[in-house]
Fold these 2 entries.
Entry 1:
Amino acid sequence: MASVHFRDVRKSFGATEILHGVSLDIADGEFVVLVGPSGCGKSTLLRMLAGLEEVTRGEIAIDDRVVNEVDSKDRDIAMVFQSYALYPHMTVRENMGFSLRLRKAERAIVDERVGRAAQILNLQAYLERYPRELSGGQRQRVAMGRAIVRDPKVFLFDEPLSNLDAKLRVAMRAEIKALHQRLKTTTVYVTHDQVEAMTMADRIAVMNEGRIEQLGEPLALYDRPANLFVAEFIGSPAMNLLDARLRRSDGAAWVELAGARWALAAGAPGADGQQVKVGVRPEHLRLGAEGLAGEVVVVEPTGAGTELVVQCDGASLTVVVHGRSGARPGDRVLLAPGPDHVHLFDASSGARL
Amino acid sequence: MSWKKAGTEARLLLVGIPVALWSAFPIYHIFLFAISSKDSAFSGALWPAQPTLRNFGAVFKQEHFFLYHFWQQMWNSLWIAATVGFLTLLIATCAAFAISRLRVRGGRLVMNAALFTYFIPAAFLAVPMYKAMSVYGLLNSSWSLVLAMVTLASPYAIWVLKQASDKLPWELDEAARIDGATPMQLFRLVYLPLMLPSLVAIGTYALLLAWNEYLYAFLLLSKETNVTLAVALGHFLSADDSPWELLMATGLLYGLPPAAIYYVFRRYMVGGLTAGAVKA
């Protein structure tokens, strides 16, 4: 059990700086997900916490102890790799007990801890098998078992579900989350999949180009993205973004776009005449009697809802309708959001207004 | 079986049978001499009129001038080959681990140097090696041949093992480091077991290289009790009237250990040697 602190952490490979001063405090027992596109530096940050990459500048601390110069093995962390990194020549039992064996733990203790981890992960039947004799999901669980047996201060996960098929990924997602709720070990989890981040995290750090764009609880990020990057990255299907001009007059505020106007909530920020990016989540767009005119291009029923792609004056908007929709390709429709569900971003900086 | 398949099979046999005969014939020739009596050895028959095992008896009991030290020479060959295999393996494994997994400085230089020595034929170095061994006062000691062969075998061994090491996933090292392994524990508990097929292949390679060596053995060792069996076989031809049947019987015995080793380790040989042969 421990807290983790990144203080203005920087990382350079040669002359190229790839992490530009990341600060992040993770509380004891918290499940934090680092999410971002490939190359954003999330894995590097995790590997620096693991002691697999050196810290160029800044400080990483576990509890109150700065670990910049501490060996991986003395940091009391456990890591689950994307490739699982199971030792191919050892049985499941040996794989899970390896770290204890290196610490010269007594045989009885090793057996007991491995047994308990195997029970938690439902691996009792596979203890004498070799990794090559296991399915992908079982290997994944062995990798987690190896981490659990250590009883570390911090769990690190580096894209642990990327090698699994879609169905198994959903199942393992739930398993990891249940495991965290049971063990309450501080966890740092890296993924490029925002659905994984949304469903598993206590807090998400969205990263891009070596910086944290926004840090917060999943729904906070969803409801109030701090900038265009987070707005586009979080949520599936992605948020619709349109160029528009902000207008206000007599206490009312609205945006003008392609000849239509969308009303804004009374307290909407921004100045009259300001050039903005308007963001609306697909489920907040309604087909109605007024609004932005467009033509339905694609209708995708998902069962629970219907996804429409609507072509509006060059822009392509996604609309999610709850339940069945009578719309057909070729239909002319008018689109408008509820006034409380419009996100405004500065057109040049991309920051939320 | 379809006609097309049968045709392919027939063509393969058409090539395979002559090649098999071609390769087997010299061995058969040796065998034929070895079981013939002295008078009938050159009769030209495909099978001797009275096959005999007496030649092998003569070899085992060291009953000829050229065979007085047969067992000693066999032992020399075995000892030298085994020592060369062991030392080459020790050096090459440590070098490959340090260069590939610990990424020590200068690793590239060592690899390039190893590759460079490929281009120098062993025969080219025979005289300088002789000179060096005489300076160290090692001539006529089996260590001179051991050291020379280890020197010749190591570059290739390092090269192949380094290439094979590079194929091991890097995450295994990282997982082991996080699990708390020191570099030595990583080497012993993770690296060596995973490298086993390549190690067997390279150990065998070095062992057989030393077992088969003639030129260096001939140059560096000269006492009858010191030379290897390969050199002793050469001595047979120094007489005007060579005992061919004994030479062939001894030769057959000399060929058995490598054949046995190949047979035992055949599973590793192909995979292990090609594993590092091509840069992936």
Note: Residues 3-60 of chain B form one domain.
Entry 2:
Amino acid sequence: MRTRKIKLMNLTSLARVSSLSTAFASRTLHRSITCRPISCSSVSHAPTSLKPKPPLFLRPLTFTATLSDLQKWQNWAKTLASSVGSSFTDLDNGPDSENLHRELNWLIEDALENPKSLLTLDDSKRDTVLQLRADLDELYSLWKQRIEKRKPFQYIVGCEHWRDLVLSVEEGVLIPRPETELIIDLVDDAIKQNQELKEGLWADLGTGSGAIAIGIGRILGDFGRVIATDLSPIAVQVASFNVNRYNLQDKISVKQGSWFDPLMEFEGRVAGIVSNPPYIPSGHIRGLQAEVGRHEPILALDGGEDGMSDLLHLCNGAALMLKPGGFFAFETNGEDQCLFLVDHMKTVHHNSFYNLKIIPDFAGIKRFVTGIRS
Amino acid sequence: MSSNILRRVYKRSSSILSRYQSISTLFVSPSDPQSIDFSTSIDTPRNYSPVFEFPSKDASGVSLLSNKRLNFSFGSSLNNTRLLFSTQAAVQPSTSDGLTVDAIVANQWAILDESENDWKSHASAIAQSIRLIKKRLQWEKLKVRLEILSFQLEKPDLWDDPVHAGKISREHGSLMGKMKEVNGLEQELLEHIDMIKLAREENDPDLESESVKALLKMRQNVKEKELEALLAGEHDSCSCYIEVQAGAGGTESMDWAGMVMQMYKLWAERRGYGVTIVDEMRGEIAGIKRATIKVDGEYAYGYAKAEVGAHRLVRISPFDAAKRRHTSFAAVAVTPILGDGSHHVNINESDLRIERYRSGGAGGQHANVTDSAVRITHIPTGITASCQNERSQHQNKASAMAVLQSRLDQREMARQAQMNSQYTQSLTDNSWGNQIRSYVLHPYRMVKDLRTNFEVSDPDSVLEGEIDDFILSFLTDSMDKENEV
């Protein structure tokens, strides 16, 4: 059975990509129409909204509210969070009340200039006027969306804290996962082993918010460069915004296009390739946690029937694009995909790679495959 | 007249110098003609000569004593430099007519209110404070320790081990600083007294009132130094972690642990410290199973270490439908956050097990979670630390690492203290399980510290963070008890 799959992969060579990605894109559109509330889909997929919305914590303090009004909102929001109990967790492994209470505190941190005044209650200052980055009505609506629509918290505040970065995210862009943080450590280890890689060209394929590219851009040497690609125009916009915010525009270029397409000219010269491609088997998409399945872009999640389509494509591309000594790290769905990839590389790309490793995440799930081009 | 005063002032300070100089040279090279030249060249030591002889006798007596002690602790290796040092420390500075700080204390002049412009009262108060500071600094022990350190600093092979050498020289510098500070206080006091006497002789009321004012200022200043001397431990100035853990007894004791943690949060905020929750495991119904906060600010550890131990609550439990009286416990641990470079333990990356916890399911793209709790286990010791309150896994890991480092440092310091009994502090005896304080809400209302017997009858204010009096009474008590031994 495994050999059948490999043969299939061989046939679906690099050329397959563009037709496949358009198929994904159309599927995304289709889903967004059927599953999403109309109000959300109009924001995330309108091709005209090219300027990303700044995250809440970066917006100006244009609104005000009294402490007592804010406390009313806070108490309402707390009650709503408490009412969830463990029902989301039982349903689809979603957040419980404790998670939601913590998120509420973070929302307050992001929305207020001086969050301490609200977090440490002092009744004597009830009439104090506080400055806000969103008006009170919006805060009500945001928290309602969080609980009732299960909108991911990161889309509510427009940012995700990832490693030591704060990255802007919005609907249409995958929220970078904590597990993926480890890719930067893996790259860091690799460039410590081989200093040459530090000054080379790196590629982050399917960059989404730009997280991995920015993480790598910050540990490369003066001559090191990163090309970050993504098929989604929104992702390209958001990634560019994040790259600029960390002042890395001279080091990282964000290009729209499918996987290797935007960097074909560097064939055989790339020092490192990293990616967190879609790897969830299509059949699992329906049962996903509501925050993911209802709100995050399916383009970034659905990895085809066995979840391996894009991963295998990336492996084949890595054999072609990497220079000798070049490093790759890919995130996968778990042990099965890791083992399959390593086996694929050993058999199909015989002698092309060495030092192939499977590395677990902090939850103990075998998550990453890394290796070096011979 | 003013030139006369200047001359006299000059005489005063140079006479101290000359006294130190000549006594030390007496020991190092008694026949050196140059040193005699030096002391005689100074402007008229006429009226000092009797004083001059008295302390030199005294000095040799003390240095003999310390010789014995040194012989006891090190065998017989002695050299001149150390002798010189011990002599210097033993010289008692005095006023022009031979009044020493000890003599002022012995005179027992009445200490009046600060507003009374009585110089004797100020002087007496200052002298008493200086004596208390010396006691709190463990003056005699400190002198011996300084000699040991000076001896080690002179060893030619000291810098073969630069880490050890750095430690020795840092400790030497810090003890030396303390000693100089106290000597400076004594000298300042005596100089003020001399000025007052002089002003009276010269009939200069302006100078007199100025000097009395200076004494008053010093009296206030030295009061603060008394407090600082309570916090003279090596790590007292550090920030710290405070950890509270609920004892057995379910919801009632978890609620109590939550109240204790709240008490520390309010106390720290009141003192202007930064407070961050690092780790918190809530109880199912109320309170916390355990929690760790980071308290940022000068002397956070010095104060908070007085809270280590078990805290007991007696009340009618709001969680008991039968309204019975319950007794519950919460354990408090405090660890200092040492600065970079002063860690006692180097953590080996390969000794760590890093886990994401409270994560179920497939993870990765399947899950969207804002909870990225991390637990780190130091495998050789089994000590763990966790953090879940940061917004990224990376930051949670960094925070947990810092807590782990602090716990391992603490453990190592306790181990070293046990080995070196001279430096065992009574504070380290307060293990996690010792009951230190009792909070009674029913049938009467009282909070009582079982170590000092200090008590207050208003538990609410204590639970709102007013614990400074408990801390200070404990620090004072333990210091003063310890130094009597």
Note: The radius of gyration of chain A is 22 Å.
